[in-house]
Design goal:
The chain has 89 residues and is an alpha+beta fold. The protein has helices at 5-16, 24-31; strands spanning 36-41, 51-52, 56-62, 69-71, 79-84.
Length: 89
């Protein structure tokens, strides 16, 4: 099932919240179970993020074909990749 515009807005609002970490991944996964969810370190993803937040980069995942790929088109997105950035000291 594709990502709806209002769902993307809700996800972005949750990630923008000052207390987004540490439970945000599990909370969003429970809230949007029809989407594929991947959590990784930001250094594991070479593509430019769809959006960046204080702790996470948000990438959109298109898994409609045989191979999943990062997309910048929300209409094609069937999942989310949350890439956690390392806090700079």
């Amino acid at each position: 099932m594709a990502l709806a515009a209002h769902e993307l807005t809700e996800i972005e609002q949750a990630l923008a919240a000052p207390d987004a970490a540490p439970q945000i991944f599990s909370n969003l996964r429970q809230r949007f179970p029809h989407l594929a969810w991947i959590r990784c370190d930001a250094s594991d993803v070479t593509e430019v993020p769809y959006r960046s937040f204080a702790v996470f980069d948000l990438h959109l995942l298109d898994s409609a074909d045989h191979c999943a790929a990062i997309t910048d088109d929300p209409a094609c997105a069937t999942g989310i990749v949350l890439a956690k950035r390392v806090a700079s000291s």
